[in-house]
């Protein structure tokens, strides 16, 4: 028998369970590991023996046999400051955690901003420490998803980078969301509409700029000034200062994230602009903070919690070797109108 290091008491072994149930060790193992290749009578006997003896499976040993760790990683290719400061990540993690509820899988959070950090993380992930990987905030032609897949690690991406078309991906229709935002501004009578873009080596950044341009072209309006940000509030501050230099008479700003929109509001107020009377502002994400800004922020809603649950469902199916009916899921955005526009 195994000895409990904390109490000194002997713990029942799998062999003891099998003997108590009157079955072979293999039968007892199949029951405990959830196999359906046993008779109902044998299953009942083993489960009764487990309860009577107080048997607790050795999860480490089981994992080695099944080649499973019961752990999945969420890899965020951003700075630590972004993870803690940007509302996007907290909502996404909540959705993922809810998607994992009741599955027995644990979530490991990993941050990799630099190439050396990514190399170190790749070595860890491919050394059988996790069963699958969720990836977010990848940029450009990041090799991480390809290298994970080549190593046999199931992956699912949320928001693909520009240089990679993932087979399994969850996203929102970024282009349509931006179109809806700018159409609303045009419908409010705004004609000098500027934008703060997201990074142009992310699909979200590129597509939200395209949606901005689409809506202006539809209305026959000349595109307003464009300044580039990185989705952070600080970049929204710098970009909006540039926009005001490019067009001091602008009457609307579409920012490609709520954080950048909040930065834009701050600068506009510092320059004496009233919101929305002088300049209307719309963000993207509809993060929890959007309803608490001054004034409350009009924003494009992307259902991040649902997206987190969906990518988790997709990853679990891949880990279990099950077919994924919809390997690419794109959610429809909605414009949530508040006082800023």
Automatic annotation (TrEMBL):
One Gene Ontology molecular-function label: transcription cis-regulatory region binding
CDD domains, sorted: HTH_LacI, PBP1_LacI_sugar_binding-like
Keyword annotations from UniProtKB, A to Z: DNA-binding, Transcription, Transcription regulation
Pfam families hit by this protein: LacI (PF00356), Peripla_BP_3 (PF13377)
SUPFAM superfamilies per the UniProt record, alphabetical: lambda repressor-like DNA-binding domains, Periplasmic binding protein-like I
InterPro entries linked to this entry: HTH_LacI, LacI/GalR-like_sensor, Lambda_DNA-bd_dom_sf, Peripla_BP_I
Domain HTH lacI-type positions: 12-66
Protein name from the UniProt record: Putative LacI family transcriptional regulator
């Amino acid at each position: 028998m195994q000895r409990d290091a904390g109490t000194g008491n002997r713990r029942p072994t799998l062999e003891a369970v099998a003997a108590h149930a009157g079955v072979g060790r293999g039968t007892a193992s199949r029951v405990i590991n959830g196999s359906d290749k046993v008779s109902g009578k044998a299953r009942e006997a083993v489960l009764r023996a487990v309860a009577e003896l107080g048997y607790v499976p050795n999860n480490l040993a089981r994992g080695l046999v099944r080649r499973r760790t019961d752990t999945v990683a969420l890899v965020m290719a951003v700075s630590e400051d972004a993870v803690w400061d940007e509302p996007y990540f907290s909502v996404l993690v909540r959705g993922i955690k809810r998607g994992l509820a009741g599955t027995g899988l644990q979530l490991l959070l990993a941050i990799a901003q630099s190439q050396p950090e990514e190399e170190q993380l790749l070595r860890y992930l491919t050394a059988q420490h996790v069963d699958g990987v969720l990836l977010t905030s990848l940029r450009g032609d990041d090799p991480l998803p390809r290298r994970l897949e080549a190593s046999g690690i199931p992956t699912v991406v949320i928001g693909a980078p520009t240089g990679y078309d993932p087979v399994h991906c969850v996203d929102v229709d970024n282009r349509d969301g931006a179109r809806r935002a700018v159409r609303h501004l045009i419908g409010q009578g705004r004609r000098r509409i500027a934008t703060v873009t997201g990074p142009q080596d992310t699909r979200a950044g590129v597509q939200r700029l395209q949606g901005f341009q689409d809506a202006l072209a539809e209305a026959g309006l000349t595109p307003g000034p464009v300044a580039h940000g990185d989705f952070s509030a600080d970049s929204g501050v710098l970009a909006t200062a540039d926009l005001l230099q490019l067009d001091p008479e602008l009457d609307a700003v579409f920012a490609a994230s709520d954080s950048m929109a909040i930065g834009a509001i701050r600068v506009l107020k510092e320059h004496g602009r009233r919101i929305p009377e002088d300049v209307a502002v719309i963000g993207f994400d509809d993060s929890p903070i959007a309803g608490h800004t001054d004034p409350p922020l009009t924003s494009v809603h992307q259902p991040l919690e649902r997206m987190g649950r969906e990518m988790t469902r997709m990853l679990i199916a891949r880990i279990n070797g099950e077919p994924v009916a919809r390997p690419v899921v794109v959610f429809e955005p909605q414009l949530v109108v508040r006082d800023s526009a």
